[in-house]
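Comment thread on ticket #2218

A.B. wrote:
> Attaching the input chain for the structure job we discussed in standup.
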Amino acid sequence: MALDPEEFVTLTDHGSMKLRAAVSRAMTLLPKERKRTTIVREGEPAILNFDQIKNLAAQWNERLVPID
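C.D. wrote:
> Ran it. Output below, let me know if you need it in another format.
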C-alpha cells in the first residue's frame, strides 16, 4: 500500500492533518485509545485501522534509518 504522507486525512477524535502527522500521533496514543483509532481518507482504502497505521509507521521509519 503506497500512500502519500502529505495527503490530508482525518484522525478520529483529533481532527484533520497530513497523513504522516496522523500516523505519528496515532502511534503516541495510549494503548487503549490506539486500538480504537482510525484514519479516514478520500482514496482507497477509505479507512485505515490501527494495524494498517502501525504498518505505515514501520515502513516510513525504515526509510528514515541511515544506510551505512
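A.B. wrote:
> Thanks. Noting for the ticket: Residues 8-63 form one domain.
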